[in-house]
Amino acid sequence: xxxxxxxxxxxxxxxxxxxxxxxxxxxxxxxxxxxxxxxxxxxxxxxxxxxxxxxxxxxxxxxxxxxxxxxxxxxxxxxxxxxxxxxxxxxxxxxxxxxxxxxxxxxxxxxxxxxxxxxxxxxxxxxxxxxxxxxxxxxxxxxxxxxxxxxxxxxxxxxxxxxxxxxxxxxxxxxxxxxxxxxxxxxxxxxxxxxxxxxxxxxxxxxxxxxxxxxxxxxxxxxxxxxxxxxxxxxxxxxxxxxxxxxxxxxxxxxxxxxxxxxxxxxxxxxxxxxxxxxxxxxxxxxxxxxxxxxxxxxxxxxxxxxxxxxxxxxxxxxxxxxxxxxxxxxxxxxxxxxxxxxxxxxxxxxxxxxxxxxxxxxxxxxxxxxxxxxxxxxxxxxxxxxxxxxxxxxxxxxxxx
Length: 402
Known about the structure:
Low-confidence stretches: none
Number of helices: 18
Number of domains: 2
Strand order of the largest sheet: 3-2-1-4-5-6
CATH class of the largest domain: Alpha Beta
Mean pLDDT: 94
Strand content: 5-15%
CATH superfamily of the largest domain: Crotonobetainyl-coa:carnitine coa-transferase, domain 1
Structural class: alpha/beta
Distance between the termini: 32 Å
Helix content: 40-55%
């Protein structure tokens, strides 16, 4: 028994944000039916590592929505769903005959989530968006660069993950509302506005003080704290930048700075009276970082972290993927990374990063591989619509269940 056992989710999402939202629901036990078609493969094709990552714990149904027969089946499925979700550009499901106004006629309790890039209204609602464009529009690229390099920004799909979490949260909230009122509802989620949320302090500073935020790199734009950054360590296996070893150290108080001095064995340079206060350390930050780097560069990153943490100084190794998989004792202890038992038909062995929540009474410890297009046609259509194997086979032979 998992927390969302019995909840039916019809999943029209693609790429990352939407599939991540429904993966969370599937991990918690929802019956997530992933709708796809071999005739219209989305941006991340089934079988690709990207697809395999975000579509575990779902059943796969093939529907060629260019066919009237598939659209008729789809409308019946929408009538049985607790949740219908998509992250296409605005209007796609309406053109397929399963827009919200149509679906709620047959299913007034449906939770219908549309998590488009820009939301359903406004001058930019028709924009096609991916993470780099959302990051740029929301201000995240600007804020997360380094001084003089506003073009750097976030190098991975940060906002997609956040939008996915918002989508899952919205679904749970709407289901809770339905339990209280008996009524479903449409949820319009703007991934763009999710991104703008994370610029909150910068927006507040501009609205309250008229100051426009600038890229700050590892610096804290609104807190007086130093040292606060990443420092080089020993142990690189080559001279390639990818093999460099670093540790992050963040002293948020004067007491933590004094503790760091003790960990470094109170070097002479650290006794400069200018370093006694956060303001002084910030004013002399280049000299401060030079001294700390001289100390860290002679030690392994893990050793620096462990010495600092033992003394109450916040520090952490800048870990690589290899570190996380092979060396991290915390993840090893929790079993966070695991091999999925059933090998994928074409990709072979696949792996899961488990749901990072641990339910005492309803553990979420089932992790099944991503499914091939249409692999679950028979089971889904039998369970949801009572269709026979013969009816499913007819649809597959005639091409609308492919």
